[in-house]
Design a protein that fits this description.
By secondary structure, this protein is mainly alpha-helical. Helix content is about 75%, strand content about 0%. It has one domain (about 5-130): Four Helix Bundle (Hemerythrin (Met), subunit A), CATH 1.20.120. α1 packs antiparallel against α5 (about 105-130), α2 packs across α4 (about 80-95) and α4 (about 80-95) packs across α5 (about 105-130).
Length: about 130
Amino acid sequence: MNTNADLCKARFDKAVDDLNASLINLKNGQYKTSINRAYYAVFHAMRAVHALDQFDSSKHSAIVAKFRQNYIKAGQFDNKCSEIISLLIKYREQADYDDFFVAAKEDAVKQFENAEFFIEQVRRYLDKQKI
């Protein structure tokens, strides 16, 4: 039988895989794809934390809103995490939907670094939870 902790670990592993994919794409000059994977690393990291509360949603906005309310505003995560989420949403939407968006290397590097910071914050939180 799978537990909330098992689901949390599976989602966190997915977040780490997406972060690694972001780095590979960054190194290969695929900046839009790197930004997309950085966003999904953060998205799946939020879902990993939510697994502990038995919460999930098919709507990205609900995942973000609940994370901000229950974890950032509650002081479990630094306010910088909220800024990172906003930036990654903005860049991911441009990269995925704006036909004329050109992702600069500097933007992709910054968003990878933001995702890396976020993943580390989630890792520390999960360690405190003994997950």
